[in-house]
Specification:
Elements lengths: L1 E3 L12 H11 L10 E2 L15 H13 L12 H12 L11 E4 L1 H13 L5 E6 L3 H9 L3 E8 L5 E2 L1 H7 L4 E7 L11 H14 L2 E5 L24 E6 L12 E6 L8 H14 L6 E4 L11 H12 L1 E2 L1 E2 L8 E4 L5 H18 L7
Parallel strand pairs: 2-12, 4-5, 4-7, 7-8, 8-9
Antiparallel strand pairs: 1-5, 3-10, 5-6, 9-10, 11-14, 13-14
Helix pairs in contact: 1-9, 4-5
Protein name: Aminotransferase TAT2
Keywords: Aminotransferase, Transferase
Organism: Citrus sinensis
Length: about 375
């Protein structure tokens, strides 16, 4: 577990994914290395021609633009038809029905995260965040003067949440527990039973759950995705999501902030009014996999950051160091690239590894 003081003065020490990627790109030696830069660090499949969204989506957007019916300002909470469509889509997997009034449309899931932090901020507040996790939560909390308390995910248990850790960290000033499922950056998918335990723990601690489900339904294997909203009767839940991942359109910047709360805590007049007023400020919305790094096998590599910077300089391959997501000496790799680039990337990493392997490992 880890506790860090909230506050804007703490923002300078927070490593963001885009900030780390920018530094890694700067370290690529263009003069000495003629290899094309290949990135396995950013999960944006749109930069590769083999990944496309469905034609239905692009045709619908084109039709909307050509109709000239959507050139004006939208209501700050989103167009009624958009809110209704999101409510119906999410309700498919829930034991109750959401209404359009439960849905607020945002500019991507990142804005939904910031909205949640803004609405929950108050003097002395703290929030429980997973480690490893998505750094934007910590950065947004720091700007809102919310103290961050990290609970551990357990790699030997499929990155499940350490429930004892949560109970030891929470107190009367804890405003929310953040659960990212499917997991970012670890790619884990929580079982129904584990999510139920999380809901019961949050209820016991009298805190709501922020369910980040931006990778919802992007799962492989035999473990299905279960939305946290299934347990909305046990504990109030804010569900965050977007079009970006499942529909391969991160540049469209359309997300949602949804109150999955059949018991109605979020429908109290003061809560609803606070939400509406904050969305009035925002303006209108627009109409992995993990590897463990074994440093004992490598010469002159001190840690995951050193590994990634030297790899970028020598091989023009960009991989995100685990430190950027809260796991020192791990590597975050995305396979959302075309097969040729992926094969080329892996060959370069192998060459880099052989070049830096300890003498005993080379023979």
């Amino acid at each position: 577990m880890e506790i860090s003081n909230g506050g804007i003065d703490n923002t300078g020490s927070i490593i963001t994914i885009k900030g780390m990627l920018s530094l890694l790109m700067q370290s690529v030696d263009d003069e000495k290395n003629e290899k094309k830069v290949i990135s396995l660090a950013m999960g944006d499949p749109t930069v590769h021609s083999c990944f496309h969204t469905t034609h239905v989506a692009t045709e619908a957007v084109a039709e909307a633009l050509l109709s000239e019916k959507f050139n004006g300002y939208a209501p700050t909470a989103g167009l009624p038809l958009t809110r209704r469509a999101i409510a119906e889509y999410l309700s498919r997997d829930l034991p109750y029905k959401l209404t359009p009034n439960d849905v607020f449309v945002t500019s991507g899931c990142t804005q939904a995260i910031d909205v949640a932090m803004a609405l929950l901020s108050r003097p002395g507040a703290n929030i429980l965040l997973p480690r490893p996790g998505f750094p934007i939560y910590e950065l947004s909390a720091a700007f809102r003067h919310i103290e961050v308390r990290h609970f551990d995910l357990l790699p030997d248990k499929g990155w499940e949440v350490d429930l004892d850790d949560i109970e030891s960290l929470a107190d009367q000033n804890t405003v929310a527990l953040v659960i990212i499922n499917p997991g970012n950056p670890c790619g884990n998918v929580y079982s129904y039973q584990h999510l139920q335990k999380l809901a019961e723990t949050a209820n016991k601690l009298k805190t709501l759950v922020i369910a980040d489900e931006v990778y919802g339904h992007l799962v492989f294997g035999d473990k299905p995705f279960v939305p946290m909203g299934v347990f909305g009767s046990t504990v109030p839940i804010l569900t965050l999501g977007s079009l970006s991942k499942r529909w391969i359109v991160p540049g469209w910047r359309l997300g949602w902030f949804v109150t999955t709360d059949p018991c109605g805590m979020f429908r109290k007049p003061k809560v609803v009014e606070r939400m509406k007023k904050y969305f009035d400020i925002l303006g209108d919305p627009a109409t992995f996999i993990q590897l463990k790094l074994n440093l004992s096998l490598l010469d002159d590599i001190s840690d995951d950051i050193d590994f990634c910077f030297k790899l970028a300089k020598e091989e023009s391959v960009i991989i995100l160091p685990g430190t950027a997501v809260g796991l020192k000496n791990w590597l975050r790799v995305t396979f959302a690239v075309d097969p040729y680039s992926l094969e080329e990337c892996l060959d370069r990493i192998k060459s880099f590894y052989q070049r830096h392997a300890k003498q005993l490992q080379r023979y």
